[in-house]
């Protein structure tokens, strides 16, 4: 996993440095939209409705339209004037019983990893939350948006779960429920009996996404059979060296060639002495030859004298 945020939890005067990781992932199989006639990939462009021309992302501003139809266009400069939202601190607001938080408010979950050499404060906060059986309400700012969040413990690890703001939960009132009579005692008793027969401890490992499994099996079988619905991937071309590698290889080749030329120039230097010796005058050569013969004959004369 890769951390997406770094900061610290402000727990009174205690500071707990943490790294934030996304706790969940989507396992759904992804599809592309294609043209039914030829299988061509469908792509979307950002096109201006005024001039009909594609617009680069850098040239796009954001606009707000009021319920009355008034529109306000804001630029990046306008947003930069707002109070800085990217705060790297998670202040604890209060501690509340976990059963007082309506599950409908829970949004996204994040794991918190201690980001210090001595995570004693991290362990202290986690143990405290376990002992008091409460969750900490905190403010959490991510991607320039401040969220309300619940801080709790899961398997000894601090977990941050962002919460919807109260006004983000819609009020509901269905007319068909108005005036409906209360269930009879016998009906309630039978329903409770049915609940008892289906009651057990929760084990998430017992449940699997059958739809995704069957979809994956369908796709694997189609690929294995080579049906007309399958377009084979083109064979991967040999990897091309990037410009930096090509330049490096060329530089090494030039270095080798240069060293070869230097070696070729240096090789004739060895027999140069022999050449000079060959060019010596006949007189010097004659002087050297008798000396060698004399040196060989000297011992023979001494041998005769001794005889």
Note the gap between the termini: 103 Å
Overall average residue pLDDT:
82
Helix fraction, binned, reads 25-40%
Structural class: alpha+beta
Fraction in beta strands: 15-25%
Rg measurement, Å:
43 Å
Output the number of helix runs.
Answer: 7
- Unreliable segments of 5+ consecutive residues: 274-279, 291-298, 300-307
- The strands making up the biggest β-sheet line up spatially as 1-2-6-9-8-7-5
Outline the secondary-structure elements.
Blueprint: E1 5-11, E2 14-22, E3 62-65, E4 71-74, H1 76-80, E5 89-97, E6 106-114, H2 120-132, E7 134-142, E8 145-154, E9 157-163, H3 185-197, H4 210-225, H5 243-266, H6 272-278, H7 282-306
Parallel strand pairs: 1-5
Antiparallel strand pairs: 1-2, 2-6, 3-4, 5-7, 6-9, 7-8, 8-9
Overview of this structure, please?
- The chain is of the alpha+beta class and 307 residues long.
- It has helices spanning 76-80, 120-132, 185-197, 210-225, 243-266, 272-278, 282-306, and strands spanning 5-11, 14-22, 62-65, 71-74, 89-97, 106-114, 134-142, 145-154, 157-163.
- The strands form two sheets. It has a seven-stranded mixed β-barrel with strand order 1-2-6-9-8-7-5.
- The protein is extended.
- The chain starts with a strand and ends with a helix.
Provide keyphrases for this structure.
single chain; 307 residues; alpha+beta; 7-stranded mixed barrel; two-stranded antiparallel sheet; 7 helices; 34% helix; extended
Write a brief caption for the model:
The protein is α+β, with helices and mostly antiparallel strands and 307 residues long.
